[in-house]
Design brief:
This protein has eleven helices and nine strands. By secondary structure, it is of the alpha+beta class. The strands form three sheets. It has a five-stranded antiparallel β-sheet, with helices on both faces. Strands 6-9 form a two-stranded antiparallel sheet. Strands 7-8 form a two-stranded antiparallel ribbon. Helix 7 packs across helix 9. The chain is globular and about 65 Å long. It starts with a helix and ends with a helix.
């Protein structure tokens, strides 16, 4: 049992026998193939226990990526102890406050946290990866196409019950994948959104970074600016891009940025649809509608507008 493996690892780390009480509190973060709990005892402050399976290839990358990012001076939780043979790690507890939990606060109040998050994207740009460090396969045309197929499978066919054949045969999708996949130079988190940005001591900390790989920086930027969970207004998105321009000295090229946003939103909609169908988690349903509206906005006037119009109108 995953919790048994976490408990025995916690006892090993704390140096206590089975008579010492230890409490495991579940943390539900929608993690595929992972069990995540908060470990509490009277001996020290709480920490996070995580057990993972081989359900996803990137799960095995969490510990080495955490150590690489920590060495690169990026704000990520510390690995306190691990038993990789049993796929268990004990991790620094950053608390329960993420960027999403502040969604009802005024945007001006949240803006310093966004600045902290955007500076992380910029620092990833300059992080040097050792030659022998193994990353997940880079964002290339094939991976972008996989994300598009994920959208077709789980959203168009699974959620809407529509035929995705016309979308699969449309040239606009492989053409966009080829354009985006022509460059994969920079490190990207791949899921840089409000649930994966924890806040502690007025600092934003990054979690769920096991999918780290090379790709386009604009993908992470679009993930934050067009986050369906927060559903920023146009004015808020412009403010975030203004902030990015102050940090990076330039704004993203508009057409490229919109294509990265479209790609990311398709991936997110596919994921929300899959979780809703397989786990019955209704929390994701309204976010499908938000993401679909954003996808219609970023594809307006472009080659994806016409083929996507019927499926996005079905959501509305």
């Amino acid at each position: 049992m995953p919790t048994d493996a976490i408990l025995s690892t916690a006892r090993q780390y704390l140096g206590v026998d089975p008579t010492v009480p230890i409490t495991l509190e579940p943390i539900n973060r929608g993690a595929s193939g992972r069990t995540i709990v908060r470990v509490k005892s009277a001996l020290r402050d709480s920490f996070i226990g995580m057990h993972w399976t081989d359900e996803r290839e990137d799960n095995d990358r969490f510990v080495p990526v955490a150590r690489f990012l920590k060495q690169a001076k990026l704000p990520v939780p510390e690995i306190l102890h691990e038993r990789l043979r049993y796929r268990v790690a004990l991790i620094e507890d950053l608390g329960d406050t993420d960027l999403l939990s502040l969604r009802d606060a005024p945007f001006e109040t949240r803006l310093p946290h966004y600045e902290s998050a955007l500076r992380m994207v910029d620092r990833l740009f300059y992080a040097k990866v050792p030659k022998d460090f193994e990353l997940m396969p880079p964002f290339d045309a094939a991976l972008y196409r996989w994300e598009q197929e994920y959208f077709f499978d789980h959203f168009v066919e699974g959620h809407l019950g529509m035929d995705a054949g016309r979308l699969r045969g449309h040239d606009a999708f492989p053409s966009m994948a080829a354009r985006l996949g022509s460059s994969a130079k920079h490190l990207v988190h791949r899921d840089f959104q409000s649930q994966n940005l924890m806040i502690r001591d007025d600092q934003v900390w990054m979690i769920d970074f096991q999918g780290l790989r090379r790709g386009r920086q604009e993908y992470d930027l679009a993930s934050l600016v067009y986050d369906p969970y927060l559903d920023h207004t146009l004015q808020e998105r412009e403010a975030l891009l203004d902030l990015w321009e102050q940090i990076a000295d330039e704004r993203p090229e508009p057409s490229l940025f919109k294509e990265c946003a479209a790609q990311r939103l398709m991936q997110a909609i596919g994921a929300y649809s899959m979780i809703l169908a397989k786990r019955g988690d209704e929390w994701y349903r309204p976010h499908i509608a938000s993401a679909a509206r954003l996808l219609a906005e970023v594809t307006a006037g472009g080659p994806l507008e016409e083929p996507l119009a019927p499926v996005l109108e079905a959501v509305a």
